[in-house]
Amino acid sequence: YFRALENAGIHLNRPQIQAVRHGKGPLLTLAGAGCGKTTVLAARAGYLMAMRDVPASSILLVTFTSKAAAEMKLRIAGLPGVRPAAARAVQARTFHSFALAMLRHRGVQDEVFGETQAQHTVMKMMLRQLGLSEAFQPESLLSALSAWKAEGRSADELPETVREESDAKRAMLAYEAWKQERNKMDFDDILLRASALLRDPDVLQPLQRRFSHIMVDEFQDTNALQYEMVQRLAARHRNLMVVGDDDQTIYTFNGARQESILEFDKVYKDAKVITLDINYRSDARILGLGSNIVAKNVHRRSKRLSAAGREGLPPQFATPSGPEEEAGHIVTHLLGQVEEGRLRYRDIAILHRTASGSRSIFEQLIMRDVPFIQYGAGAVFYDQSLIRPLMDHLRLSLNPRRMESIPSTLGPLYVSREAGMEWIMREEKQQAKKYPLIHLSRWDRLRDFQREQVKERIRLIRSLTTMKPAYAIQEMRRIFYDKYLESGDTGAWTHYKETMQESLEELETAAKRFDTVEAFVSFADELSERHRQMESLRREEDSDAVRLMTIHRAKGLEFPCVYWIGASEGILPHSSALHSELPEDRRAGAAPTTAVDNDAALEEERRLAYVAVTRAKELLYITSPASNHGKPAAVSRFLLEAYGVIPEASKPEARRSSFGQPKGASGYSSRAGAGSPASGTATRVSSRPGPSSATARTTSSVAGSQAEPRINVPVWKCTDDACKAWMRR
Ligand code: ATP
Ligand code: MG
């Protein structure tokens, strides 16, 4: 069989073959990133069918995403001795699709309500009905609710110690009731209900008999409910194979439990453990950096990976002055690579830590006409539900009669958008006003305090034009959100508030670049317009476009070239993971010591850094902006720990490298040249430091170039025979 595999171009190494051929009983396959875990799973499914006569329909293969499940089926279909019908019959599914199939089989007809957009729409509707539209972001409430339910708890049990909590809880309960009344279920309901069903022996036993072989990919990110389901299903045959990398547990905020993989062979005492330690994905120095980073975690199984690949270019490093310069620098650099024919756009991924962390790079990509696809984000930053009302207040300050900007300002007034707008439009027909919003103050449905608020809001809108845009944002933030942000915190809400705070800080930072409200607003409008024009690009699966995504989204994927942005203290590690009792100098961004800090949150951040680095096959570029939201930020401790010293790039005398020498392109200048909309925009951006001076000062190769290896990253050579054979090919 393995010869046949080789003829088909798949040369497995010895432990990989061992895992594929494993006989009866539980099997844990532990491996670092890129060591062929997913590859082995597919090969084993083929082997079981071709060599052990296991019927395809008895194999259950669980993957993390539906895209991965579809790819898995394709891979299996391409294996020797697998008939197309058999490949189709293998149950390659996500936990959710498996659970759903089970519910359907038991006659549950409830409609799935899985599209994120549909959930948003309903949550938005609930918030509006409760008059809470502008107090909460639907996506944050949905994700808090989801994490809560992943632990097997219901929304009734959510805390409500402060007023905002009980407001949010009311919205969540309304959302849950809305679904129930209409016989609908969302993804979390599917899992909860399926796991409840599996406690019934009449449901469980036939499934246990059917699935003789169960395999789970990305096992390190299963949550309690999912793990329990797998354990029940596998209890009869006990042919449970899990593959994963404890160093890649990055979803604990969604209920993932690293213990499941760390303790698998304690729970299953007879489990065979096979370690795969040859990485076929990344060049040796990239892998060396990744391994060095994650080696500082205590809560892990230690591994020593070697790279099958050659020693290519060392990871390159730069410390731009801040995210704007970082973005400009990266776009210039990647355009250079594409123009010189070294890479296609689609070979490139840009990875960032948080959702709002992509704002600068997103703007640069758009304004400089780089085709790109942002995974997982629906809207331009300025159009997101939290930010939109603030921008609309600014728009109204320039033009109070801009009708399409009025609805989003009604939420903070606790006025229904539809009814409020209807009233305003009707009154406008009678008598047009300079500030159509003022009609509301004569609306009989309003209470006195609301009438007062309408007048105050108009005073605010009038005053905004004369303010500096950043100050205007601060003002509105104080009026609309501060009360909520300063209220008490309990576990379930912390994450939500952090995201909110971060988005608002990002908005303020963005506004600081502009001298007038007008310049800021027209920049945001142009951005939305250009983003709309890129729509067709986003619809094509395989378009030649740069991929922009969070590190979380990049899990399991690989790219020839990766830019990891925001490798600075406060960004990665994220500020939420840094101890509040840290001395001020360290929090504020002075270089941290190389002493290793290992609490759970910090370890998860370190794993994220590891995942980011190990997505790269040949080229890895890392940038550590020296400031974030106007505060100084030191180079990420993860880099310092890995290299043992402050990377050379952060010292003024550092050598120049190709990364960091922008070709004279400045700021938002467009590739389309003068006269394009972008060149007009460039003049509106204020106080933007010229990238060339700053980057020359700060850029170098961290891992040391061939000529002058200043910082030594251990690189391990491969010794395994199969690996050598692979290299000879
Ligand atoms: P991750 O931890 O990121 O999910 P993984 O362990 O699942 O990674 P794979 O995606 O299966 O790794 O493999 C990484 C890369 O190495 C793929 O491009 C795969 O084709 C290649 N690969 C895996 N095993 C071998 C092998 N024995 N010989 C050559 N290439 C291999
Ligand atoms: Mg994988």
Automatic annotation (TrEMBL):
Residues 10-283 form the UvrD-like helicase ATP-binding domain. Keywords: ATP-binding, DNA-binding, Helicase, Hydrolase, Isomerase, Nucleotide-binding. GO terms for molecular function: helicase activity. Residues 651-708 are annotated as: Disordered. InterPro entries: DExx_box_DNA_helicase_dom_sf (IPR013986), DNA_helicase_UvrD-like_C (IPR014017), DNA_helicase_UvrD/REP (IPR000212), P-loop_NTPase (IPR027417), UvrD-like_ATP-bd (IPR014016), YdjO (IPR025916). It is an enzyme of class 5 (isomerase). Residues 664-682, 692-705 have a biased composition (Low complexity). Residues 284-556 form the UvrD-like helicase C-terminal domain. Its EC number is 5.6.2.4. ATP binds at residues 31-38. It catalyses: Couples ATP hydrolysis with the unwinding of duplex DNA by translocating in the 3'-5' direction; ATP + H2O = ADP + phosphate + H(+). Belongs to the helicase family. UvrD subfamily. This is DNA 3'-5' helicase.
